[in-house]
Amino acid sequence: MDVLSGILLLCLAVGLYVVCSLYLLRNPWILHKRKRLEFYCRNISHRGGSGEKIENTMEAFTHAVSAGTEMLEMDCHLTSDGYVVISHDSNLKRQTGYDQTDLPLYEERLEVTFYVGHYSTGKDRQFVLLEDLFKKFPSMPMILEIKENNDLLIKKVSNLVKQYHRESITVWASEESGVMAKCKEQNPSMPYMFTMKRGILLLLLFYTGLLPFVPLGESLLFFYLPSIINRTYIPEESILKKRFVVYLLQKLTMRKSLFEHLTKRGLQVQLFVCNEESDMEAAFAVGATGVMSDYPTLLTNFIKKHPPPPPIYNYINRLLRYGGHQNKVFADIKQTVY
């Protein structure tokens, strides 16, 4: 009898846990205060839109902004003389043809990393400094991925962000938890993304039902759209070249209920790198709040053809862009709408 009672109590406890978890998954505001970011971006340009101009050049960033992008993504390195420069690779062989640490010109024709067989060209082939971007685009939200575990780099990036008063519209990004810990310590006022380890933990919490009960410090989730792997993007990692692994990744990560839960908590979910309209459509359909692309013009045109339901979106976005990022009330309205 005691064994039967124990089993019944266990079943009751599990059932109650499942019901509570599902209810809180759909209604997270009961336990968690909604995050309020001062930007809401559907159109994010990867490396400044590396499919339309040479990646990470001032020409690329300027073109992306004029094409209608709402956020710029870039990678930061430190030069030997202490300047924060925008560059994806730590070694310049792919980008310039020269294996050196100085800054020569980019190649005249550069393959798009996430769109194999496609190339970009442009008049501007010079590397750009982060400070120059801050000066030219003072109110444009930016994602800064720290590519080195370098304390001086992190400090200099943080100092530039503070100097130009853009903590609320500049995002810390890194795959490495150790690097992210240093970033948060250096400037805790900046929003930050999930690292790889934290992303895995997020999935574990989601599938065990614990996610609705756990507070999250992150404000953004960046993740591959798995369907691009081995199609438009050929990964270097051999494990990602196996179809079963990509299929499993697709099934485990592209969960609309997960993304809806995160967005209800005020987080933004950005999927990358979508360089075809079918991929953009798939990303938004699964619940992404934003899409990262190498083709800002293509993405802008896609969004125009598939506008978000509330007509207030474009109005608020213009107010945020031209009225100054300090106008938090409009960001709050936008977060509430979405």
TrEMBL record:
GO cellular component entries: endoplasmic reticulum membrane
GO molecular function: phosphatidylcholine lysophospholipase activity; phosphoric diester hydrolase activity
Pfam family name, one: GDPD
Family: Belongs to the glycerophosphoryl diester phosphodiesterase family.
Residue spans crossing the bilayer: 6-25, 200-225
Taxonomic lineage of the native organism: Eukaryota, Metazoa, Chordata, Craniata, Vertebrata
Protein's organism: Cyprinus carpio
Claim: Hydrolase is one of the keywords in the record: yes
Name of the protein in question: Glycerophosphodiester phosphodiesterase domain containing 3b
InterPro entries tied to this protein: GDPD-Related, GP_PDE_dom, PLC-like_Pdiesterase_TIM-brl
Gene Ontology biological-process entries: glycerophospholipid catabolic process
Catalysed reactions, as listed in the record: N-hexadecanoyl-1-(9Z-octadecenoyl)-sn-glycero-3-phosphoethanolamine + H2O = N-hexadecanoylethanolamine + 1-(9Z-octadecenoyl)-sn-glycero-3-phosphate + H(+); 1-O-(1Z-octadecenyl)-sn-glycero-3-phospho-N-hexadecanoyl-ethanolamine + H2O = 1-O-(1Z-octadecenyl)-sn-glycero-3-phosphate + N-hexadecanoylethanolamine + H(+); 1-O-hexadecyl-sn-glycero-3-phosphocholine + H2O = 1-O-hexadecyl-sn-glycero-3-phosphate + choline + H(+); N,1-di-(9Z-octadecenoyl)-sn-glycero-3-phosphoethanolamine + H2O = N-(9Z-octadecenoyl) ethanolamine + 1-(9Z-octadecenoyl)-sn-glycero-3-phosphate + H(+)
Source superkingdom: Eukaryota
Domain (GP-PDE) ranges: 41-303
Family matches, as PROSITE patterns: GP_PDE (PS51704)
Record localization: Membrane
Annotated keywords: Hydrolase, Lipid metabolism, Membrane, Transmembrane, Transmembrane helix
PANTHER family documented for this protein: LYSOPHOSPHOLIPASE D GDPD3, PHOSPHATIDYLGLYCEROL PHOSPHOLIPASE C
